[in-house]
Amino acid sequence: MTALDPRIADALAHLPEYLGAHVMLSFSALALGLALSLPLALASINAPRLRWGMLAVASVIQTIPSLALLALFYPLLLGLSLMTKTLTGAQFSALGFLPSLLALTLYSMLPILRNTLTGLLGVDAAVKEAAMGVGMTRTQSLFQVELPLALPVIMAGIRTAAVLVIGTATLSTPVGQTSLGNYIFAGLQTQNWVFVLFGCGAAAVLALLTDQALGLVERLLGRRDRARVFVAAAGVALLLVAGGLTSLYRADTGYVIGAKGFPEQYILAALMQQRLNEAGLAATTRDDLGSAVIFNALAAGDVDAYVDYSGTIWTNTMHRTDMLPREAMLREIGTWLQANHGVRLLGPLGFENAYVLAMRRDRAAALGVHTIADLATLAPKMAVGGDYEIFARPEWRKLREAYGLSFRQERQMQPLFMYKAVADGEVDVITAFSSDGRISEFDLVTLTDPLTAIPPYDAILLLAPSRGADAALTRALQPLVGRIPVERMREANLTVSRESNQTPPAEAARHLWTAVSK
Q1: 6-251 placed in CATH 3.40.50.720
Q2: pLDDT of res. 249
Q3: Which one, of 321, 348, 355, lies nearest residue 458 by Cα?
């Protein structure tokens, strides 16, 4: 019997969790969108100014990029959560479901509002007069005559909103909400195209099934078959409850380990989870959290532990531009985190994942480029590629100022394609990561930084304020401190991110621990 491809088996193992959470989020957002949009549409049917204002606001919201709207809700809700804690002592989680729900609800409203208004305004005036002529009140005419006639147009809007919400829900992963987007984000980072196809396919199938189910409800409503309408509605409700129970069950599984959206973070999160499980502690991971989200989630207690990098904390969180020796910087970071956020720095893991400028080895040799200083005169004729955030980070500004770098073009791209781009000559230089095994895979050379403009990026293990004194958590994770050399991390990264003979992050984490714990 042929064994199932490990990537397919891994994808199937995650399907109940990812699909359940996706259904819960999508249907909740659609239900809330309906609950808001239909009354607003009915209230504005005879108020042109209100109608115009609502449609204008809904249209503007629709123009905001989905990922941006999702990300914006997190800091807003986090601030509100901290305010309620100060005023009442109660705090809610601003990570994951709530920001995703609110953003998707707003996205669902425009098609529902527009189609409801179009359907009601399109009812023939003669029909309304006839209803009034047989003694109906305005309300009776609206609900017994106009709404049934407008139903096909309204249902078309609801079906459009449902498909839109289900598709957009895949983008909720970076704000901590589990969804089918977990397949897509993880797959793109690790070249696991099975995951990418699985996520896209599952979301498409779910959208099509939902559209067909709503179409069935529309046809049954048109026939005034209340029994069948009730059965169809009950089926949708059961699907929502099942998805919700799955999502809630998965969410309450002990310690929460956070991870940013790249292979190294997946491996480290899996390793931390394994260490906790071996110590008899339940743990789950929240992968693909955005860089701007994960630290705030840790400080707020939505995440219990994760690995960050000293240079990121120093420049982006502490907003420091000066430079200290590595050990002094780590001490100051630890003191600052504890004093300002209650976050405990458990210790460095033993390797550094720094930004480095990298070129193809043969091209660097032909141009005589060995250091970043060598690029100064060549940069105006070169294109540089970087990840989505590097060119907006203070480290990049400092690097440019230190060496007088001015590239002909700065191209942002997903890290997977960044390495291929420099290997294929699409760009001349990339902002690579020093612990990434793809540097050797693509035969790249890293340029030295003689002015030490780039700060150290030691991988550091951070604990949430509520977990800093947790003896069980500390005992389980302390053995990781100082145990992982950069060579081992590069090997593990490469096994996860290479396209052929790919290793799942959890398996790579087991191999890594076996190698470093001898």
Answers
A1: no
A2: 43
A3: 348
CATH 1.10.3720.10 location in the chain:
6-251
| Superfamily for domain range 355-446 | Osmoprotection protein (prox); domain 2 (3.40.190.120)
Strand pairing class (383-386; 429-433): parallel
pLDDT value for 256: 93
DSSP code for 448: B
The whole-angstrom separation of Cα 189 and Cα 191 is 6
DSSP per position, 359-379:
EEHHHHHHHT--BGGGGTTTG
pLDDT of 251 above 60: no
Indicate whether 499 pLDDT > 80: no
The one-letter amino acid at 92: F
In the numeric block, which tokens belong to residue 231?
A: 């059965």
Length, in residues, of the chain = 518
User: Has this prediction a pTM greater than 0.85?
Assistant: no
| Domain 255-352+457-516 bears CATH identifier 3.40.190.10 | yes
Residue 117: both structure tokens together: 């208004």
Q: Where in the chain is the domain with CATH 3.40.190.120?
A: 355-446
Confidence (pLDDT) at 66: 84
pLDDT at position 345 is: 97
More confident residue, 252 or 40: 40
Nearest-angstrom CA–CA distance, 199 and 179: 9
H/E stretch holding 445 reads strand 444-446
Residue by residue, DSSP assigns 167-178 as: HHGGGGGGGT--
